[in-house]
Design a protein that fits this description.
Elements: H1 4-29, H2 33-41, H3 46-80, H4 88-99, H5 103-134
């Protein structure tokens, strides 16, 4: 029998994979058909059109949604603490149970999640600005 951590990470992975698959599919479908036709007119194969023409543009379109999905994944890890997966919220609950202090550990966990969300958002914002300058 496997532990709760395995099932939590497996479930979060499947959920994130499904959402990211939809994000990438939508980003590729959002690229105008003329881009594909331009690659065909240059004599590129379907694989090379996808790699060199469509995916770089799709990456730029998908980046904000992928960033949002990473924030959702971060929030999902807090839910994993309900099945005894030890992470930030689980550590806060452990300190709370040992010290009988409620606000300090939960405030520290909230601040930690806030910092992680800011770092993820700032990182994806940096990549978005870099791509905007490039294309």
């Amino acid at each position: 029998m496997r532990g709760a951590a395995f099932y939590a990470s497996f479930t979060l992975s499947l959920n994130t994979a499904a959402y990211c698959g939809g994000i990438w599919s939508g980003a590729i479908q959002a690229i105008p058909e003329g881009q594909r036709e331009a690659g065909q007119s240059l004599g590129l194969s379907k694989t090379w059109i996808m790699i060199s023409v469509l995916l770089p543009q799709a990456f730029r379109l998908a980046l904000p949604a992928i960033g949002g999905q990473n924030i959702l994944l971060l929030k999902g890890t807090a839910l994993a603490s309900t099945i005894t997966v030890f992470e930030l919220m689980g550590a806060a609950n452990l300190v709370r149970a040992q010290t009988f202090r409620v606000y300090e550990p939960l405030s520290a966990a909230a601040f930690g999640y806030f910092l992680l969300a800011v770092v993820i958002t700032t990182g994806f914002g940096f990549f978005e600005r870099r791509l905007a300058q490039r294309y």
